[in-house]
Amino acid sequence: MERITSLVFFASFLIIFVSVVNQTRGDSCDESLGLCEKCDERCKAKHGPSCISKCDGEVGMLSCTCTYECAPPLPPKGNVCSGGTGMCSGKCPYKCCDTSCAQKYNGGRGFCNSLGNYNFCQCEYPC
Question: What is the pLDDT of residue 12?
């Protein structure tokens, strides 16, 4: 039980730390580009050099997904609060995190943040 409590404390601390570090980060969007052939090259050609490409799915049916910044960062003068909904899932990392944040926080948006071996769902919302 003590180990679980320590892990929960550690995860909460990381979410708070990451939310402070990423306050200027914009929203991220995902776009599927079909099969994985030359995935990274196609993503960067369409969304620029800062996008992240990923191939996932079932073997033989891998799909190329591009993640890119799709909106300007939230204005620093606005009252923006940060929170989280736990860990991001490998099956639905970005869309599920964004949906969870929208359900948990009024006007909330979510994105996944990797820190070490952990992939946290971080939320930003007006407060």
Answer: 44
